[in-house]
Specification:
Number of helices: 11
Structural class: alpha/beta
CATH class: Alpha Beta
Low-confidence stretches: 1-33
CATH superfamily: Vaccinia Virus protein VP39
Mean pLDDT: 86
GO molecular function, one term: RNA cap trimethylguanosine synthase activity
Order of helices and strands: HHHHEHEHHEHHEHEHEE
Pfam family, one: Methyltransf_15
Number of domains: 1
InterPro entries: RNA_cap_Gua-N2-MeTrfase, SAM-dependent_MTases_sf
Protein name: Trimethylguanosine synthase
Family: Belongs to the methyltransferase superfamily. Trimethylguanosine synthase family.
């Protein structure tokens, strides 16, 4: 394990080696030779499903979940979006360090829970974890994968999963607005469900909200510099504005090729104190994976060298 120094755009070099064996799970038969949006919500857990562009993701399965062979399930879409476990662990430990002096119970939200990779690590460090996702299948994966890492009875009081289409959190939308595309997508949170979840969140104040918002699929890497206005479901400024309704501290996992000038402008616009902004470069096996960007007073003056994995 090695940690590199933080500078203007640097941070953590998280490296891990895993040598677990392979155990196949019983899942529907599928076969894929290319990147195809049509079967993104199918469970992909058999080696024969991972061909063409998908092959590299199967080879990375133990980087994503060290306990993968104990029954982890993911949809095809989630293989593109799950944060490697060692980076998720570092993120949780960094946020834990930021609140090291707080005595009250700590509440954290993963705003885009996906398959639960970050949720699992937050449960190791915090008292109550909320996991939010637009996709019911993703929430089912999050719950099942959490049970591999934690007893079911413990999760009943510490893990709260909410179906939510963040689009409905936009206060500028007319009251009768309906996200037709999401409403017509099987398994996606409806407007009614989303509004119910937002009502729950309205009464919460989180110590920190983490999110790895959709980057637009693997094609993001084709951009020399990633335009943060391409994040989903909102541009970066709007996403931060929405999340800041529920917390004073936000941490986002963003593409490694993110536009740093956009980050700087957004920070200046939303945060009066530039010291509230930390940018850490994460790597796996020596290769850059993404930027962990933290905003808020909790991240001022924390010493990242004291993060213990």
């Amino acid at each position: 394990m090695s940690i590199c120094k933080e500078n203007a755009v640097a941070g953590v070099d998280a490296v891990v080696e895993n040598t677990n064996g392979d155990t196949k799970l019983q899942v529907p038969n599928s076969f894929d030779n290319h990147y195809d949006n049509n079967d993104m919500n199918e469970i992909f857990n058999e080696e024969h499903q991972f061909t063409g562009i998908m092959k590299k993701y199967w080879n990375q399965r133990h980087d994503l979940f060290s306990k993968y062979d104990e029954g982890v399930i993911l949809t095809k879409e989630l293989w593109f979006s799950v944060t490697p476990e060692i980076i998720s662990k570092y993120t949780a430990k960094l946020i834990e360090l930021a609140f090291r002096d707080k005595k009250d119970p700590l509440y954290v939200m993963d705003a885009f829970a996906g398959g639960g990779g970050n949720v699992n690590q937050f449960l190791e460090c915090f008292d109550v974890v909320f996991g939010v996702d637009i996709n019911h299948t993703h929430l089912e994966c999050t719950e099942k994968n959490a049970r591999i890492y934690f007893p079911k009875e413990q999760l009943s009081s510490r893990l709260k999963l909410l179906p939510l289409n963040w689009v409905y959190s936009d206060p500028s939308l007319p009251e009768d607005f309906v996200d037709e595309q999401a409403e017509s997508t099987e398994g996606y949170s409806t407007k009614r469900e989303s509004l119910e979840s937002l009502e729950i969140l309205h009464h919460m104040k989180f110590d920190c909200i983490f999110g790895s918002p959709p980057w637009g699929g693997p094609e993001y890497i084709n951009e020399k510099i990633y335009d943060l206005n391409h994040l989903l479901p909102f541009t970066l400024p709007k996403l931060l504005s929405v999340l800041l309704q529920y917390t004073d501290n936000v941490a986002l996992f963003l593409p490694k090729n993110s536009n740093l000038y956009q980050l700087q402008r957004v920070t200046t616009m939303l945060f009066p104190d530039k010291s509230y902004h930390r940018v850490l470069k994460t790597c796996l096996h020596g290769r850059p994976k993404g930027l962990l960007v933290c905003w808020g007073p909790a991240f001022v003056n924390i010493d990242i060298s004291k993060v213990e994995l």
